[in-house]
Amino acid sequence: MNPSFSVQYMTAVEGKVRAAHMERFGVAGTLFSAPARVNLIGEHTDYTGGLVMPMAIEFRTVAAISARNDGQATFYSANYGESRSLDIASLERAPQGHWSDYAAGVVWSLKQEGISVSGFDMSLEGDVPLGAGLSSSASIEVAVALAILSLSDVTLPLETVATLCRRAENQYVGAKSGIMDQFIVAGGVEHRAMMLDTRSLAYDLLPLPEEIRVVIANSMVRHSVATGGYGNRRDEVEEGQAVLRKVFGREMLRDASLEELEECREKMPVESYLRCRHIISENGRVLEAREALHAGDLKRFGALMVAAHASMRDDFAASCPEVDTLVEIALRQEGCIGARITGGGFGGCTVNVVRTQDTERFVAQVKSEYEKATGIKADCFVSSPSDGALALAAKGEAK
Length: 399
Ligand code: GLA
What we know:
Helix content is 44%, strand content 21%. It is globular and about 60 Å long. Strands 1, 2, 3, 4, 5, 6 and 7 form a seven-stranded mixed beta sheet that branches. It folds into two domains: 3-207 and 386-394, 2-Layer Sandwich (Ribosomal Protein S5, domain 2), CATH 3.30.230; 212-383, GHMP kinase, C-terminal domain (Alpha-Beta Plaits, 2-Layer Sandwich), CATH 3.30.70.890. It is built from twelve helices and eleven strands. The chain is α+β, with helices and mostly antiparallel strands. Residues 1-10 have low confidence and may be disordered. It binds alpha-D-galactopyranose. Alpha-D-galactopyranose is lined by residues 39, 43-44, 46-47, 135, 177-178, 180-181, 225, 343-344. Residues 39, 43-44, 46-47, 135, 177-178, 180-181, 225, 343-344 line the site of alpha-D-galactopyranose (GLA).
């Protein structure tokens, strides 16, 4: 495992965007970038005011921007070799089911906020695996937002950047996601995981001990937040939340206890009961996980990850056989402290906490056993907690 691999690679992505922008638009452009994220624990809690513990990772989306003076916005994706132009003044909510919706959605959301957006050309390129549950969409949204805001000479606090980008995803693209991804992608801090209260947006930065590494393993089963399972789960959760609101006056599931849920069990469909049970218990696990990190109790942290996976699989029904296999294989390996599904679910990646000295062997074994069991070649990445986009910009990344 070469720890400098991703750093060199990201520099290459920046170089590619710069060259693509120059070739296409004839100017160098100013560069911005935003990372992807992985969630250590706290899944599907962020749209009911709950707790999450993500970290930004070393994959990034890079945006190069330059001004144009005809009120048009052009987005060019070097990944897809495609571009989309739109007239900023007349932009309405009209998603096209295309990668560019995330970028156009940010323009729309900034306009909704009353921010005046003038014409620009933008080139985008990233190395975030798509459909892997690592939040490639938030990475695009936040990179695009920072680039446009900088061109417009507007500085906004973290909460506002995250909220504007979430609105792009919820209301323009139509994915009913919570705020976790946009918040950590914008506000992550190097060497730190973040415990975020998605209701108050208060957060704690948590150091991860040197003796562990975070390994992300991609099951290669594609996941999507914009379609299917994610939206269904949200509807099921909302139905349960509505019952708890009516019976106990709990505005958000975050405030409800497992005892209250039990009392309401007969008043809601069994699916809603199970989904809510996952969320309420998961909030408790996130709090315990923070305590475990503070106490340096990795055994406890790992046990909480294992319990979180079981809950996501059994109560939330958002895993899949391949991901379960990947977790089971991981947990059999020497030095594996904890493993679970991460992100929206229904495929995507697992997150694994592994003792540093066992990491290389862990990756090799997991890949080989997963291929034997499923016939699928998994990608594995080792990532330290990275800076989010705002921290990168503050460190002078914009050139
Ligand atoms: C997706 C969403 C997030 C969150 C997770 C599940 O990543 O974008 O808001 O709901 O799923 O924890």
